[in-house]
């Protein structure tokens, strides 16, 4: 497996976790749990952004993606 494929999987997993935390936050009546899941969602949004940035960098700088001139 390539680094690019690994990053794609990591982005997908982080997005899934983000959705799960948002669902938990919306569905709980416990205010402290709601706040905890909101904070976890915010953290995961940052993780997704960082992973996407790294994926973009790797994709752009992957020698296999460059044409031979």
The figure for the number of domains is: 1
Task: Report the span from N to C terminus.
Answer: 27 Å
Helix content: over 70%
Overall SS class: mainly alpha
Instruction: Name the overall outline.
Output: elongated
Secondary structure tally: strands = 0
What's the helix count?
2
Uncertain segments are: none
The percentage of residues in β strands lies in under 5%
Order of helices and strands: HH
InterPro entries: DUF1657, Ferritin-like
Pfam families: DUF1657
Secondary structure layout plus pairing:
Blueprint: H1 3-27, H2 31-61
Helix pairs in contact: 1-2
InterPro entries: DUF1657, Ferritin-like
Pfam families: DUF1657 (PF07870)
Describe the structure.
It is a single chain. The protein contains two helices and no strands. It is mainly alpha-helical and 69 residues long. The protein has one domain (3-59). Helix 1 runs antiparallel to helix 2. The two termini are 27 Å apart. The mean pLDDT is 92. InterPro entries: DUF1657 (IPR012452), Ferritin-like (IPR012347).
Short description, anyone?
With 69 residues, the protein is mainly alpha-helical. The chain is 81% helix and 0% strand.
């Amino acid at each position: 497996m390539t680094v690019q494929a690994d990053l794609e999987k990591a982005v997908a997993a982080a997005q899934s976790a983000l959705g799960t935390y948002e669902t938990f936050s919306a569905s709980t009546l416990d205010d402290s749990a709601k706040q905890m899941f909101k904070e976890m969602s915010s953290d995961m949004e940052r993780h997704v952004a960082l992973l996407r940035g790294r994926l973009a960098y790797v994709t752009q700088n992957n020698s296999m993606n460059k044409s031979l001139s």
